[in-house]
Target: DEAD-box ATP-dependent RNA helicase RhpA
Amino acid sequence: MLFSEIGLGPEVLRAVEDAGYSQPTPIQEKAIPWVLQGRDVLGCAQTGTGKTASFTLPMIDILASGRARARMPRSLILEPTRELAAQVAENFEVYGKYHKLNMALLIGGESFGDQIKKLERGVDVLIATPGRMMDLFDRGNILLSDIKILVIDEADRMLDMGFIPDIERIVGLLPKMRQTLFFSATMPPEIRRLADAFLMNPREITVAPPASPAATVTQAVAMVRGEDKREALRHLLRTEDVKNAFIFCNRKRDVAILHQSLTKHGFNAGALHGDMVQSKRTETLEQFRQGEIALLCCSDVAARGIDIAGVSHVFNFDVPHHADDYVHRIGRTGRAGKTGRAFMLATPDDGRTLDAIEKLIGREIPRIMIDGLETPDMSEGESEGGRRRRPARGASPRGDAKGPRRRGGSDAPRESQAAVEAAPQVEEVAEARRPERAERPERSGRDRDRGRNRDSRADAPRDVARAETRPPRQDDRGEPRRRWRDEDDGPSVVGFGDDVPAFMLRVARPAPRAATPETFEDADTPEA
Model:
């Protein structure tokens, strides 16, 4: 089927032809006719299949008739990340170049003033991330009462990033009569619940098994130790025919460390993660798109919807925590029917996560070996409960022939049974060799006095011993300070004792009453 056969207008068809496309993908072929009819659509397709064009192309045709008003956008597209929102905005510019549609991009890291000016001129298409969208709405710069089309893209990523409460609030502010398009690469139960709440009699479109990677991507996993991961990655980069590649890490800190390591070893690499300022993120992504950077070390901020043609490889430096993220990561290659290769570095601690990924995609990922590196045993990693396996009883923590360490921290093995049985005999020999008490030499007189004094001080109470050695304390008048522990002092003083402040001994007088007509009648003295 051709694009000309699915009902798009001539201006959109000409823009699609200028972009070099003639045949729609399966998700586009099934979704576009239903969107043009005004039906709600629930689309589920694997990443890299053209979901973005399946709603941008018909939206341009629908919005071609009509006029936008100030601060009242006619359509709203919600995206989870800034990069994905910017990419959708680029698609609108490419496919809508023969239409006079105004568009505004609301993402974090950009100036509020420029975005507010676009809203005041009136926009037909509003593309936003939920955070910046709610900021401008709370400031009164956006009115959502004229929204005709709502698009929620990458809904499963919205769930992972915690945007669902914001999405629910935004949907509650929109008109009830609207067209809603809901797209996601995976369909977990929570996303299904949201779809049932937001959509009205939707047309469900599924063109591929949920969470399935593209068949054009060749996958492999290398089992290495944690300290060998960088060396294994460098080996793969040198042996594979890498044109350009995404290298995914689980943590932002690891992205920066890996970027420095690759740069130190002479690789042309860049870094991309969520803590970078928006201008730097946009610049780095554009350099990678133009080929100025060959390797892009990134976090999962680049795992969704980033469409860069001709990416040859994807390397998972870390096994993703969620199995769905693996499908999205390797979906950056093998797009639009092209071939790609995806490698993952796994350690013994990643056993459970690797099993979850293979269960999700429905097949086992082939294992490969790295030359010069030892392949560890997966049984050394986590147990079924998610905790590290404890060494077996009688084995050392490192798995060698030594026994368990003793409580004092020593690596010496425990005593054998024979040594335990011989212990009484050793004690008898030691007792026989010990000299009798009566045979010890007699101490001199000075030593006897010194020991007697030491013993007497040790047997005496601590307070008495201190009193004998310390001079008596004196008060401010130079007299010896009394000790409350002496027997002649009697019971301990309660309260202030003898030193009662003088003001507390004064007789308190009642306060004078207010001067009212009633008090004047009862007063003893006549009125002044």
Notes: Residues 445-459 form the longest helix (15 residues). Residues 519 and 525 are 11 Å apart (CA to CA). The mean pLDDT is 79.
